[in-house]
């Protein structure tokens, strides 16, 4: 897959290095590589089959844009919002090549790209959306950089919609199904090639500072969220078999699934606003809570 062929608009791809981010922000932490990138690559077809309904709030935002607008979907997944309106032009990108392949098969203009280093020139789009993406980034610096990138690539007066999972879930029972990262490190999460880890009071990962359990209990925001891939799925024989062999995934014979764990940093109220506060060329024009998500609309100044 050649990105220029897929994008079909080579002039939108930046060839300049003036917006490159610092090495520590640009470098992807291991937790994202293992529990975001690798997981979505493995579950892409099954994930895509569950992602077809459009969120009313996202649909409302897209419908509010002027006809002829050029809209970027950063973290487009299977492309369910690409081509949402025949009156606008859509392009998308995602870190997962298998998800991008699905978008290509559907005829969308897409490429593989990292949300913290978008390969587009400054001021090229009329609007951008980032739907359920930022909560997969494991540091404050990377989350802020992703927002800065969304602002950078839209024109002055352009709008950006961002949604993230909230700590304040409407269905509180979901939290009991997630694994808090401040729980004691379970050996099942350790790569078999790594030395054994025992009696560790907190999960220590490259991107997450060590925190005492009392603090974790008050401000728990880091979780592993399970994805159950049914045994009958076609992809079960490839990547999932290897994942089971090396301990990256586990079987749930009772449910008939292979279970992957996805990393999430779930947001508390006001956190998105605090991230934006340090960005001089962006203003908040709307903010709201919708179906267990915190959402914000920004305008580029």
From TrEMBL:
It holds the Pfam family Methyltransf_11. GO terms for biological process: tRNA methylation; tRNA wobble uridine modification. Residues 72-162 form the Methyltransferase type domain. The keyword Disulfide bond does not apply. One of its GO terms (molecular function) is S-adenosylmethionine-dependent methyltransferase activity. GO terms for cellular component: cytoplasm; nucleus. InterPro entries: AlkB_tRNA_MeTrf/Diox, Methyltransf_11. Keywords: Methyltransferase, Transferase. This is Methyltransferase type 11 domain-containing protein. The lineage of its organism: Eukaryota, Viridiplantae, Streptophyta, Embryophyta, Tracheophyta.
